[in-house]
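Example S7 (structure tokens).
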């Protein structure tokens, strides 16, 4: 065989071997990820473990992510301390980290007994594959100490153990994209139909907040050694923020390509706020694909089933209102108040039409007779169609829609349901004089009940000369900024996107409610912070009811 041919053959064999090894390694990491997150292997076999000495459990109940979360950074809530099991945490010697000990002791609520764990500064050697396998199977750490009895003891064979350890070696090994030595990059997405007025309202809050934040970071950096000792320890965690304006154009089918182009030019750590009157699903699909957190966009059309995804919403928007109306109609039917026909009105190509279509399907599923009226804004003939019902009406109309249909509205004494989300900018919820039996369905707090945090936000805005032109949009934007700010402070320098989402889940209800929603809270993998929709009867405010999901 000629030397050149032999050399080529050897090179081909070597390259093939390297590629096969790389593919095997990727497969091992993939299988380990499956075990870590779901407690089962790729063939569907459930992992079995023993908890509290003799209690045998399997599958999702003993998945690593159940306690240590997807990020691997664990949790330190009252009564539950799960340490970090990321690659840096496991495969380096454990040493005292003052910034993290400060956070655990003074930024997290703990009882006197529970605070003993964060005070434990006992060191241990770095894990090896062998000592980590011993810890996972037998509950003995790399220094020979027995782990907590709540830590499951896993019955894993050698190949399954190797897969899991391969994944742990990759878990949160590096900071996620969008972070450099000094700056954290965020994007703000707006869709083409958003008005300049709404953009200005949102950006006025964002610019002022980021300016304040960056000024504070600069002050800390310029006074190294002069600030209190604990702040010097946090110095590596202080980063300035940079916002990127991602304005989308054209039709929704092109949004994914535009977002990808923006991201290639300037990768970001997360999306903050944003505003759209169109369905948010194209942006969510982009974020889920790239695993980029998208925090509290201002939209009335979120993805309906978003639990576990990368986007966290204020609520389910118009879909929540539709479900609340349906529940109310079902209750009335149980009381014998049967409707012969339910009319729905909306303007074509608006969020109201999306709500109408969704509600119509729901009503028909529950055997309600429905008549849908979608009015084309371009047609002059449809403007003569009157909104006057002898049966319950559902009007999925905004302020602008009411102005457009002013000449078509007729007075009625029948029940008329109005959308609080679409009428969010009006204090009265539509033209009250036409409908004495107006029923407002809204996710927002009763305006007669004042929230103390709302006063604080107004004062903050006035001190920076920011006009309040759209309270819900501006207060929602302020909330998104504060919750990510609080979350990053707790993360210190662990810049993991999964960990950011986990911290936001934890921080959402920590006195951050901007005062426009009844209550905001998130549990693990929950993606809708407000879970209450009010049905408000203006003539009987004392009889307002609330629907909880």
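Recovered sequence:
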């Amino acid at each position: 065989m000629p030397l050149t041919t032999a050399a080529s053959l050897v090179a081909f064999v070597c390259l093939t071997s390297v590629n096969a090894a790389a593919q095997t390694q990727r497969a091992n990491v993939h299988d380990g990820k499956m075990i870590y997150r779901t407690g089962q292997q790729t063939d569907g076999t459930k992992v079995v473990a023993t908890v509290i000495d003799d209690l045998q459990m399997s599958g999702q109940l003993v998945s690593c992510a159940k306690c240590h979360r997807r990020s691997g950074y664990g949790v330190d809530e009252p009564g539950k301390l799960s340490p970090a099991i990321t690659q840096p945490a496991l495969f380096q010697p454990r040493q005292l980290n003052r910034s993290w000990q400060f956070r655990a002791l003074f930024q997290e609520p703990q009882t006197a007994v529970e605070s003993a764990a964060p005070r434990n500064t006992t060191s241990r050697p770095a894990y090896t594959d062998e000592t980590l396998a011993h810890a996972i199977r037998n509950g003995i750490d790399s220094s020979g100490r027995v782990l907590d009895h709540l830590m499951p003891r896993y019955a894993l064979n050698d190949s399954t153990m190797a897969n899991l350890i391969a994944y742990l070696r990759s878990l949160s090994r590096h900071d996620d994209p969008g972070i450099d030595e000094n700056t954290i990059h965020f994007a703000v997405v707006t869709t083409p139909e958003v008005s300049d007025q709404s953009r200005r309202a949102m950006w006025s809050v964002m610019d002022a907040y980021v300016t304040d934040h960056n000024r504070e970071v600069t002050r800390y950096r310029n006074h190294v050694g002069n600030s209190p000792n604990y702040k010097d320890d946090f110095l590596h965690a202080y980063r300035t923020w940079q916002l990127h304006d991602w304005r989308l154009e054209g039709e929704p089918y092109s949004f994914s390509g535009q977002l990808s182009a923006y991201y290639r030019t300037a990768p970001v750590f997360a999306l903050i706020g944003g505003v759209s009157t169109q369905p948010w699903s194209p942006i969510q699909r982009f974020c889920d694909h790239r695993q980029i957190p998208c925090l509290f966009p201002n939209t009335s059309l979120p993805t309906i089933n978003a639990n576990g995804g990368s986007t966290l919403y204020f609520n389910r928007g118009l879909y929540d209102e539709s479900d609340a109306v349906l529940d109310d109609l079902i209750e009335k039917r149980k009381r014998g108040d049967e409707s012969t026909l339910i009319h729905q009105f909306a303007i074509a190509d608006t969020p109201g039409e999306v709500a109408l279509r969704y509600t119509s399907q729901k009503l028909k599923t529950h055997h309600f007779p429905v008549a849908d009226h979608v009015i084309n804004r371009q047609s002059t003939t449809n403007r003569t169609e009157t909104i006057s019902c002898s049966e319950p009406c559902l009007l999925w109309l905004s302020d602008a829609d009411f102005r457009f249909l002013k000449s078509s509205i007729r007075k009625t004494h029948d029940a008329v349901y109005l959308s609080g989300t679409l009428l969010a900018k009006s204090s009265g919820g539509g033209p009250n004089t036409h409908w004495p039996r107006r029923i407002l369905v809204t996710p927002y707090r009763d305006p007669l009940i004042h929230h103390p945090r709302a006063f604080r936000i107004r004062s903050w805005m006035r001190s920076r000369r920011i006009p309040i032109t759209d309270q819900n949009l501006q207060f929602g934007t302020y909330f998104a900024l504060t919750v990510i700010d609080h979350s990053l402070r707790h993360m210190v320098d662990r810049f993991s996107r999964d960990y950011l989402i986990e911290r936001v889940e934890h921080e959402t209800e920590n006195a951050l409610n901007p005062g426009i929603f009844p209550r905001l809270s998130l549990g693990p993998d929950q993606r809708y912070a407000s879970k209450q929709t009010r049905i408000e009867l203006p003539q009987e405010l004392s009889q307002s009811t609330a629907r909880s999901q």
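Notes on this example. Residues 3-27, 426-430, 540-549 have pLDDT under 50 and may be disordered.
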